[in-house]
Design a protein that fits this description.
Layout lengths: L6 H5 L7 H17 L11 H9 L12 H10 L10 H14 L2 H13 L3
Helix pairs in contact: 2-4, 4-5
Length: 119
């Protein structure tokens, strides 16, 4: 799906995928985890228009109640400028810190939400 492709690659066919391209895709996956749906799946938009929008900096809207630090992390991953994206080590470190900061109640709330949705 086009939404997961580094906008630099969408803009320039000869742009070589690299670690920062993977980080962009990871940021999109992180958003997908918080939303429970693929990016732009609720929009009736052609791939060519989406490509233009992504190159121009369009991203999905944050999901309400997404933990702020998690939101900040995935938004940094999908930054338009690859050199502003974190490394995978930085992403991992931040996710570990976020995981340690979550309480048992947070996990219970997540479990309750998932059971309510029959996931």
């Amino acid at each position: 799906m086009i939404a997961y492709i580094d906008p630099k690659r969408l803009e320039d066919y000869f742009y070589e995928y690299n670690d920062k391209s993977d980080i962009y895709s990871l940021g999109i996956l992180m958003w997908e985890l918080s939303s429970g749906r693929p990016p732009f799946s609720d929009k009736n938009i052609s791939d060519s228009l989406l490509k233009t929008d992504l190159i121009g900096g369009r991203r999905e809207e944050p999901v309400p109640d997404t933990p702020y630090e998690y939101l900040k992390l995935y938004k940094s991953c999908w930054d338009l400028e690859p050199n502003k994206r974190p490394s995978i080590s930085q992403v991992f470190s931040k996710l570990v810190k976020l995981g340690k900061a979550m309480s048992i109640q947070d996990f219970q709330d997540i479990n309750d939400d998932m059971q309510g949705k029959n996931v």
